[in-house]
Amino acid sequence: MSVNYIPRVTQLDAVQLDNQLEELFKQLVFQATQFIEPQYVQPILPELELLIRTWIFKYSVYDQKSTFGQQMLSLNYKSDNFARSKLFWYYGYNVGLKYLRERAIYSFTSNTKVQNFINKLETFQLIGDILNFCRFIQTGKYPLLIDFILGIELSAEKLTREDLTDFSWTRELLWHNFIELIGTSIALINIFGVRSKLSNLLKYVWWRQHVRSTASTMEAVMTLQTVCACCNNKPVLPHTLGCSHIFCYYCIMANKTADQDYSCPKCYFNGREINKLIMPGHQ
């Protein structure tokens, strides 16, 4: 006998588990390719992520009518309203659109019209996700926008976390709300403005002037050990500011958009132009 009521926290936990599982697969693939020259891996990075998401979709939603995160929490989509056509729409939204966006960003980095179009699509999708989340909090159904669009509901064959008391549920809900409040508060703080003011206080320090003067004369070279100067991970779509350090495209664009005076956090070089790193053999 299926359960009629599924707690909201359980449904959101399933979504988080799916996101974490995808990131885990990506890390395993990146570790397996860490000894391959970046010039061979970076051009096909969107395709690698497409294969990972397709594999996850095939062996979870396509075969089992539930994601891996839902299976961990004894949840599944109701099969009576999950027709084959909806599977293709589900795949196109969760996998196909992500691939097209990442491929467009990589292949048309310098095309302003394409980038603006992608930014508008991401904005509309974000607004849709926010509105759907507000609706989900009220109704307790369709935690994802695509679930609401296709009308696919979750069900459970047994009670999830049935050993928890009402007090435990209340405490967990309060904890999740507290985390959301902290995240919202941090988002309201102008981190870039604070950093800019602190950085201006150090502009007369002799060691910073020395580093800045020497940084602009060095050419950026990407090796197997190169990491992004912002996030300290392997650069995704490597770009430069004009100094010897390399950034992820998203990292440098986000910082420059928020603060036009953003300078390299490693050498404090304040480059005005963001340039795509041209690797040998890809000019």
Automatic annotation (TrEMBL):
Gene3D superfamilies: Zinc/RING finger domain, C3HC4 (zinc finger). SUPFAM superfamilies: RING/U-box. InterPro entries: PEX2/10, Pex_N, Znf_RING, Znf_RING/FYVE/PHD, Znf_RING_CS. It holds the Pfam family Pex2_Pex12. PROSITE patterns: ZF_RING_1 (PS00518), ZF_RING_2 (PS50089). Its main location: membrane. It catalyses: [E2 ubiquitin-conjugating enzyme]-S-ubiquitinyl-L-cysteine + [acceptor protein]-L-cysteine = [E2 ubiquitin-conjugating enzyme]-L-cysteine + [acceptor protein]-S-ubiquitinyl-L-cysteine. GO terms for molecular function: ubiquitin protein ligase activity; zinc ion binding. GO terms for cellular component: peroxisomal membrane. Keywords: Membrane, Metal-binding, Peroxisome, Protein transport, Transferase, Transmembrane, Transmembrane helix, Transport, Ubl conjugation pathway, Zinc, Zinc-finger. Pathway: Protein modification; protein ubiquitination. Its EC number is 2.3.2.36. Residues 228-267 form the RING-type domain. Coiled coil: none annotated. This is RING-type E3 ubiquitin transferase (cysteine targeting).
